[in-house]
Amino acid sequence: MERSEIQKLWEAFEIIAIGCVLFGILLVLYLIRGLLTPFIIAFVITFFLSPVVDYMEREGINRTLAVILLILLTLIILFLLWKLTWPIIQMEATSLQKNAPFYVSKIRGSLEQGMELLERKAGFMPEGTMQNAMQLKIGDFASAFGNVDFLFKTVRYLLVTFILTQLIVFFFLKDGTKIRKGLIAYVPNKYFETFLTLFHEIDKQISNYIRGQLIDAFFVGVFAIVGLYLFGINYAIFIGAIAGIANIVPYVGPLLALAFGGLLVLIDTGSIFTMLEALGILAFVKLLDSIAISPLAVAKRVNVHPLMVIIVISVGGLLHGIWGMLLSVPLYCSMRVSLRILYRGFVEYGHW
Amino acid sequence: MNVLDSSQQDAQFSTKSKALDNRRTTISKGNRFKFLLRKIRGKEGKIIPVLRTVPIFEGLTYRDLKKIELIVHERTFMPDEVVFYERQPGTGMYVVKKGLIRLTKTTDGERVKIAELGEGEFFGEMSLLEEYPRSAQATAVVKTEALGIFRPDLLDLIKRHPKLGSKILMKLSTRLAGRLRKTTEMKVKEVE
Fold first, then answer.
1. Model's pTM, two decimal places?
2. Segment A89-94 mean pLDDT
3. Which residues of A touch B89 (CB under 8 A)?
4. Do B152 and A348 touch (CB under 8 A)?
């Protein structure tokens, strides 16, 4: 009798200890979050490339050699892409940089007019409140686009981070199994089998999601760029790239990309017809994606109700901005699959 | 008479040493090859010799065993620690590396010992094929080191090395077929 009491106490203590350890790990990760960017990118790339390495290994190529070949190939392709598209990107960037203050002042003008109208109608606000707020926000935007060579810096930063991440990707791809084994080696025996199953399920969910979304985003980006370019719309690469990247966030992303693209074209040309043309192209690409690319690329996509996706993305965005929006769906899926496995173990077998 | 002049001595010595050298080179050539092979392969470690004794991995080459070693989890169980409970969902098998494991089953509310497994013996291999509640409880009798091989890892291995995977699956099915034959024979005898 006494022994079982002690055992119960011990079990409670064990659960609390595990909780503390997990909390500690999260805290450390939060504290060093600045260093995590290359690791997060490396994770994403690893999830993306690992099926290719697996395929090469299946064909009889040594894993290390396969990883080296693949990374070299990626670098060559990226280099060629860079060489091919750099002049156009440069042109777009310079033009955008030059015109940004003009666009901003144009937006500001129309917004100010709107605000003035609103204030007059609303009546209860001290004059100039909204205008001041707007000016503050837009001022930041203008300095980001106009004064600093914002775009160049971003591109360069991305490139440097990417090269750094190559090293991490190399080891993740080559020693992934070993690293995983090492990570779960200290899980207590009692929870080991459950933990291992969870680990694999979460891995599967996240990698399927990331892989699908990236392939999808790539195709959407390329089609949007080609479409916009063929119709002779300015900033085709810029708008197309943003449409592709935004497509990673389901439902909300494409809408934002549409709004952004439309606005940029409208400000640039001033013609509603061209804006509608651009919007039409983007919408058509999205339609094509929904019908043809997405079902193929994201065939094994985690089955989540659209409403739930929107709620989850909103919560993610509210808590952590862009990263929150990007990571919320895979996180939600991981939590869901974990709860399902634990619940089943508990209800069906009485153990977990 | 005994004294050989220096040139003769030298000649004798040189032929002797040449012969010795020859022998040495032939030996060292063989050794060098083995040494190189060992260097390339790396240390065999403590896991592979245990894996070799498991019938499921019988006849596999060193390279294959090395791949299996990657998915093996080394677990240590204290005396009286439960490896898995009866009816718990099973995810894989364990090979006893060192120590003793007792398998027990509850029948009519009483716990009955089924078997005790020592070094090199294994249990739970059917869980590699499908998730099914464990049919018995496994408990460590003394401090026991065991190697765990689990289904998710095995599925990964099959995906990455289909040839090796099919060899392992073949062995597993052979064991299963053997068991099935035995049960059928028993049933037939019962009917007779």
1. 0.70
2. 75
3. 193, 345, 348-349, 351
4. no
